[in-house]
Amino acid sequence: MKIGTDRMAKLINDLLSLARMENANVQVIKSPFNISEVIGEVILSMEALAKERGLSFSQSIEPGIIINSEMEIVKKIFMILFDNAIKYSDANGKISVSLRRDKHRVLCSVQNRGKTIAEEDLPKIFDRFYRADPSRTAENGGYGLGLAIAKASIERLGGNIYVENTPRGLTTFTFILGDS
Ligand SMILES: Nc1ncnc2c1ncn2[C@@H]1O[C@H](COP(=O)(O)OP(=O)(O)O)[C@@H](O)[C@H]1O
Ligand SMILES: [Mg+2]
């Protein structure tokens, strides 16, 4: 198998991120930050990529939500979900992001339209190296590590992540964090 240096670098980085998140000895360093602003910034940096692919984009971000967590990890989780939403969207599809507070929890969802994940694949989707429908995903060039990193990361932060399918071809990933 041939692998380009960019892909190799990304693979190594992903493996290191996963190892770090799964290593209980590595400390998570929490401090308060405005997650509404952080998610907004990541959207600004990734929106162009979505538009380049002909995807439209909508967002519903509740302003001023402060959480006590590790900002870089939260950013990374959101980037993984946004990246997947772009990669696995139908042509001319739409991506929707929402961020909201519910009592002492903060919920962030990323939704796209496309081929949904088969029911039998749903429990495996967060496993390392797992890719549903490899024939279709081969061209997208990942190694099936994104969601494993997202899950290990959110668990380190004391939160949770889940996925939902709707029959109308919508896939929604949601991660939940406490606000303190
Ligand atoms: N938004 C999505 N819509 C449909 N399938 C998805 C979505 N996000 C992830 N998947 C499926 O989950 C698999 C694992 O995702 P991930 O761990 O990010 O790895 P990668 O993107 O490298 O394949 C993908 O290969 C794809 O089959
Ligand atoms: Mg991915």
Automatic annotation (TrEMBL):
Enzyme class: transferase
Localization: Membrane
Domain Histidine kinase: 1-180
Source taxon at top rank: Bacteria
Keyword terms, alphabetized: Kinase, Phosphoprotein, Transferase, Two-component regulatory system
One Gene Ontology cellular component annotation held by this UniProt entry: plasma membrane
Reaction equation(s) it catalyzes: ATP + protein L-histidine = ADP + protein N-phospho-L-histidine
Leader sequence segment: none
Known EC number: 2.7.13.3
Record GO terms (molecular function): phosphoprotein phosphatase activity; phosphorelay sensor kinase activity
GO biological process: cellular response to phosphate starvation
Protein's UniProt name: histidine kinase
Pfam families according to UniProt: HATPase_c
